[in-house]
Design a protein that fits this description.
This protein is α+β, with helices and mostly antiparallel strands and about 130 residues long. The chain is built from three helices and five strands; from the N terminus they run H-E-E-H-E-E-E-H. The protein has one domain: Dynein light chain 2a, cytoplasmic (Beta-Lactamase, 2-Layer Sandwich), CATH 3.30.450.
Length: about 130
Amino acid sequence: MPGVENCLQEAMAIPGAIGASIVDYTTGFPVATTGAAPNEDHDAAAAGTADVVQAAQSRSLFVSAVPHDLLEDLIITTAGGYHLLRLVQTDFDSRLVLYVWLDRIRGNLAVARRRMQILAEELVAT
């Protein structure tokens, strides 16, 4: 899948990127991965990504008062980095999430979020 591979290559070009993956968050399956993963386990990172996205989508706490407002991204901050989860919105099932692990010192959270938005949009267009 050239779109997926290109997306991950571009994600790794984000300053401070440590690792990236595209995950089917309904199953926790890593569609594609590159770079490092927390605890050196891409499968566990994908399963954790799926758990976090499913939890956020199923809780009324995160539901907006705006009709048809969709969850776009989630950010988990740790002492050493950021875990950015960007949902890939499609016309059919929207089951994918782009995950990037970003080094906190070398990365720029605002730049990474904007770049991930663009990458998710381009992934749908391919």
